[in-house]
Predict the structure of Fructose-6-phosphate aldolase.
Amino acid sequence: MELIIDSADVAQIKALKELCTVAGVTTNPTILTKSGREATEVIQDLIDILDEDQKLFIQVVKTDYEGIMEEAKKISQLRPKNMYVKIPVTHDGLKAIKECKKLGIHTLATAIYTAEQAFIAAANGADYLAPYVNRMCNYGDGVETTKDLIEMLRIHNMPAKVVAASFKNTYQVHELIKAGIPAVTVPCDVLFNMINHPATTIAVGEFTMNWQKAYNRKELFK
Ligand code: E4P
């Protein structure tokens, strides 16, 4: 399974890259605005901190077919490899995904709220499909719909990878990992919550305290 970071926070991505085996970074226009900096500079920083084999996903901002294609071509050239263009599954977006497939531009179909939207994007040649798990919970069960999608792609032998997105808690991630999701993109706060547990800190404190009490030193070896 690919673990991807859903953020453009360079400092946090750097820290999480050290802690976890990360397959890449996803962003969207809203995520990029959160830095308070010029988006193109943030994108360059992301390119600089990622290893060559880690994927970077940048979303188009234009919404008409020609605009999407123009931005998709530019995004795809930002790095020699592992560069993906995120395209929302609107009418223009679906047309663009099909055209990108013909041109060899890697895409991630985004802003997906139903398994059917994802299935159509997969048939158009999207490499990744991003169901918005948490947001889908406003309309039904985002986790269950994403599980259905994985099953639909398996039955029809379609190569597109589901990268579950829009997580707000570790439970949603847990359920989809358990269901065999091929990829998840997780915001930094949720990822830190997956890693940290107060009881772990307490347990380590107890080990240190008991050791010091018994041996009057902090190290294993004298
Ligand atoms: C990632 O690909 C999506 O753009 C992102 O997960 C959406 O998250 P949000 O629902 O928190 O905006």
Summary: The radius of gyration is 20 Å. Residues 6, 26, 28, 30, 110, 130, 132, 134-135, 165-166, 185 surround erythose-4-phosphate (CB under 6 Å). The chain has a mean pLDDT of 97.
